[in-house]
Every structure is written in structure tokens, then in C-alpha cells.
Hints:
This protein is globular. By secondary structure, it is of the alpha+beta class. The protein has 3 domains: about 15-155, Jelly Rolls (Sandwich), CATH 2.60.120.430; about 165-170 and about 580-675, Immunoglobulin-like; about 175-570, Glycosidases (TIM Barrel), CATH 3.20.20.80. Strand 7 (about 85-95) and strand 8 (about 95-100) form a beta hairpin.
Amino acid sequence: MLCALPRAGAQDMVIYKDALQPGWLNYGWATINYSNHTPVHTGTNSISVSDTGTTNKALYLAHPLFDSTPYQSLSFWIYPTTSGSNELAVRAILSGKPQVPYPLSFTPDQAGKWQHFTIPLSALGVASNWHFNGFWIQNFTQHPVAFYVDDITLVAVPPPDPVPLTVDAHKVIRTVDPRIYGINIAMWDRLLADPQSGVLLSDIGVGAIRFPGGSGSDAFDWHVYRDKGRKWPRNPSNAATFAKVTEAQKAQAFITVNYGSGTPEEAAAWVAYYNGDPASNAVLGVDSRKTDWQTAGFWASLRAADPLQKDDGYNFLRISHPAPFGFKYWEVGNECYGGWEEDQRGIPKDGLPGVPHDPFTYAQAFATYYKQMLAVDPAIHIGAVVVTPESGYGNHTHAVPSPEMDGAPVTGWTPVVLSTLKSLGVTPHFLIYHSYPQNPGHESDATLLQAAARLQGDAVEIRRMVTDYLGASATSVELDLTELNSVSSNPGKQSTSLVDGLFMADAIGNIVQTEFNTCTWWDFRNGNGIRYEDNPTLYGWRPYGDYGMVSPGGPETAPNTPFPTYYAAKLLTHWARGGDAIVSATTSYPLLSIYAARLAKGPLALLLINKHPTIDLNAKISLIGFTSATENATLYSYGKPQDLKQTDLTTGTVAVSGTTIRCSLPSYSMSVLILNPIKKE
């Protein structure tokens, strides 16, 4: 049983203290020095800001969109060099748009001295808003101005004690799809065929597995066991290994076919290999690169055959599996909108028509992939790549009218792809979305642990675009999140820290509130020993990064060593699974998340996440529509002690008094409480 602890404090976010803190960016358009030595308020540096003209120049401290709900005010020290009414103005920013100015005035005796301001976020027009992304301090005088700023902080909302939480077991939000608990498997995973991989995957109850691996998918020739465009050597894992592992887990498969350097015929052959009939004479055809892909039966026969005594190059595909795998979910390309992605469109010698990273080209190609893959197996579902925001990642061509903007033309990736598919009479079965809330070098634990809530907004935005640009057929299209992790590239110490595990659990709690039916975490086993972002402000004791849930082995970890994300996934096996009902759960404090599920067999399972780095939070959970049959709830938990000792989940009990639970949740911890219902007579 957990005992009550002293009242908790708040977690402020430091923006500037001698230097800009992680996640905060200089977007200012005045003359600015972030290492000014005099005057300073505290420490060794301050920010000097100079507008030598009359152009309303400003200090602009920007941040990727994040939730302002945990914060109540903006605090800073400022050193004006002149006095006057409305000398400067603070303007907070929502999605890049400045809000109402908050004037700063200085009397003559205040000029040349440090002054302290604490401005409520409500006065800046950005309280409790997840579109918050920075603020200006702007010259409003219409004459030259110089000033200095130091010790800038977002002041946190203090937590109540206890934190009131409410669960309404009668209010069902949705039923959990088992594919929510998915994972990516990479072609470079040299240990995938090892029996221990099966044990590790089984222990986290994986419901969906995606292959062959992120950006490599657009350079992957599945049938020759190597990447085409990059001329890498054969990868340790291949299409056959993936199939056997996925079948053993009884998981749904997501296969990403090669759009960047492949052809529709090559993709159709892959469908035939997994799902085809060895007796089929269906001709796949000669592709634009003059490769003859023979028949569906040719590839299905390889799957069914025993290896030859003398390998002809296809023995890795001969796995003595006559029955089709029946893999259902197929993606055309991976993040095809991004310049980081292999895309050989428009290169004459490659025989792939169109323009690289172009939504119109992609939609036209998708229609061909769609037709040829479905011709092999009409039962499969084929997904198209989308991205947010609406105006993002276009090539400034093939504009379409935006209903959201009163018919104004937009050329963003998603509107152009969906509108073009509609004109071609093609409706994708599902849409593929990826989310990495941070970019490398700007990782922040505080903002990452609020980022999961944005996934609910992402689902709403994607659904709106589907409705706007696909029209009547939009209702048949499902949404799937097939990559999720903390940072878009160059994973540093945060990726192997407890914080990333907390983010994963919080993300799943948010995703099951949305219409996303799949979440495949990036990824199972990746590659560690990477030392990208090692900022001392980040929590964690591992000095290296790794996207994987378990280590592939390296100089600092043994093979298959679990990271905190693995234990987060393992903890969730005690929470909602496929077929369970998500019910309403609310919190009064943003650093303490609660998610509730009514399990198929009757118990109520609560997922609780304390996102405060240093303070244990007392909670009072009120239950509506549910009475516990026992005086104790079963507790599963993982937090700092387990992470530091590299041990498994711990178990215990928490007292229940009727419809009320009082407990204390340690800082940086995730817990699952399970309550058994009173049996009906």
C-alpha cells in the first residue's frame, strides 16, 4: 500500500538562463545577442535586443507547438534603456499567429534598472492551449530602442493536493483495436530470427508488426534481399524472416512497399509471395525498368518450396509454407513527402516517371500500385501516405481549393494527394501518419511529456482533410499511426531514458481516445552506442541514444537489454487490450494523466502517469458507475527505482474505499491499477 506524501510543488519551464534552453529557438528579427555580458540579472549572460530603426523589430523566442495548460504565467526580467508608456509589448504566439499585445511601460526611474514582470498567460491570450509556440517582446515606440532580458521562465500551475481524478465507467469512448499495440521491425535487425526475439515480442503482446523499416522501405528490393538505390549489402532480416516472426506472434502485418525506387509490379509480386496461390497463372507483367515479374504463382511457389541444394539466389524465400500468410495491410511508400526519402522519380535512366517528393506524382503512382496489388489479392487493404499540416510538404503545383480556407488554393501534400485520388476514382483503405514531436538538438523532457495530447488533434485534423478532399468515400477510410517516437532523427539520451517510456504510455492513452486503429512504435531493435543529444537538462543516466525497445548489443549494452519503452509496453499488457472498452477518465492537473478501460471480463483498469520529474503526487480517484469488490486494487508500476536498477515491473496493492481510491504516485512513474467488480446476483 502506498502512503500519502507531502504536498507537491510545480515544474516551471526555464526558457533562458545564460542561454536558450532546449526546444527554444531564436526567430527574432532585431539585432540580438544571447551571450551579452553586461548588464546581466543573474549568472553570466543576458539577451541584448536592439532595434536601430522604426520597424517594430522584436525578440522572438519560438518553440514547436506545445500545450500551455501546465503553465500559468510568463516571468522575465527586463532592463529598459529608455522610459515611456507602451514602450514595448509582449505578444504570445498561437500556431505562428501573434495574439493581443500586452504593453510594457517604464517610468523614468525604471530606465537603466532591472524590472521584473509576471504576466498571466490568460492576459496574453494563450492559456490552456496546445497551439502555443512562443512569444515576442516588440518595439512599439516607432523610434530606436535597446533593452536587455534575462531569467525567462514559464511559471507552472501548482498541483492541487490531492489531485482530483474522475472515472466514469458508464461512458464508453471506443473499443480498443489490438493493432494499437504494434511495433516496427527493421531489415537491419540481425537478431530478428533469434528465438529470444519471439519471447520478447510475446511478453509485450504485440498486435501488429511493420516491415521493412522506415526510410529504408523506399530503397528495399524485397526479392533480392538488398537495397536498390543505396547499394548496401544484404540486410540481416528479410521478407521471409519477417513473415515467420509475424505469423508466430499471431499479429497483423503492415508491409511498406518500395515507392521511391520500386515499381507497382514489384509490389504486386510481394503480395503474391505472401498471399498468392502457387497454382496461379496471373501475369504480373513487365515494369517500366523492363523487369519481367512473371506470374503470381511463380512467387507463391517460392514461398511453398523447400530450399534448393544449390542456391539460385532465391533460397532465402523458400520456406516450405504452402498456405498463404494472408497479410492484409500494405503501405505504398514511407514519408514520400520528405526530401530525406529515396525517390528516383523523374530520373530518366531509372524509368520512373514524375517528380520526386511530389503529391500529384505520388497519387498517380498510388492508383497504379493499388490496381495491380489488388489484382493479386482483392482482400488486402492498401494505405496512402499523409502528413499535417494541410499546407505542408507540397511542391507548389496542382493547387486545390481548401474548404477550410474559403476555397483558397493550397498545394500541401495531403490535399493534393487526396484530391487527385478522388479524381482518379481511387479510395485508399487507410491513411498512414507518422509522429515525432521533436527535432534533434531541441529535445525537452517537459514538452515531450505534454506532446502526446497533440495526437488527438492530429487525428481530428487528418479526418477533416479526408472529408474535405475525398468527399463521400471518406467514411470508409481508416487512420493508422505507423511510426511514433520522441525525436525525428539522431536519437540521443532521451530516447533511452525513462521519459521516453512515459511518453509512450501517455501516447497510447491518448491514441485510444482517437480513431487511430493502429500504432506501431519505432522500433523493436535499432542500434545504440549513438551519442547525439546529451544535454544535461535531460533526465536519464544512459549517455547514448537508441530508437529500439531492446538493445541489439554494443559496447555499452548486452543484446536484448530492455529499455524503458519496452517496460512501458509490458506495463500496458495489464491495461486495455484488443476488444476492451475505453471509458471516460479526467484529470485536474496536466502532469498527472489517467486513462481507464473496462476489460472484457469485467475489471476496471486504470493507467496513471506522473510526469513530474521530482515530486510525488497524491491522487484522489472518484469512480462513477463502478464499485470495487475488494478493499484493495492490484498495482503494477515502473519508475525511477526500476529503471536505475534495470529491473522488471513491480507489483503491489492500493486501498479502495467504496468508490474512492487515494494513492501516491512517485515522480516519473507509470502505474496500472486493476479493480474487480462486484458480481451481479
